[in-house]
Amino acid sequence: MKNFYNVTLLCFALGVAGLLFRAPWTMTPAGSAYTHVVLGYAPVASEKFANVPGARVDWGAVTLMAGGVGFLSIVIGASAYFFRAKRGPEKDLDDV
User: Fold this and answer.
1) pLDDT tens-digit profile, the chain (96 residues)
2) Which of 4, 17, 59, 87 could make an S-S bridge to 81, C-beta 3.0–4.6 Å?
């Protein structure tokens, strides 16, 4: 199971780091019931949309994308565990 956890954690960390460098930005004011207009994708700490009034990171979309990253990380980790070279239980490195 170590293989599953390590691969899943690595994929999730890389995915969330990539998401922070490519977060969706919107110009709809916070708390508005209207549809959000996505301005584009930029890093979270970016000044790319500084000239657009009301521009902010759409944290709802970031949360949904992070959920997708988590799901894909679990799938990749499970496939890495299932398709490992040796079948049977994993041996603990401390027992060798």
Assistant:
1) 777 888 899 999 999 999 999 988 888 766 666 767 788 888 888 888 888 887 888 888 899 999 999 999 999 988 888 877 666 666 666 655
2) 4
Within the chain, residue ranges assigned H as helices are: 2-20, 59-82
Model pTM?
0.73
| Extents of the domains making up the chain | 2-29+38-87
Beta carbons of 56 and 26 less than 8 angstroms apart: yes
Q: Give CA–CA dist 96/79, Å, rounded.
A: 26
Q: Both tokens of residue 32? A: 């508005």
* Pairing verdict, β 56-57 and 38-42: unpaired
d(CA 19, CA 1): 27
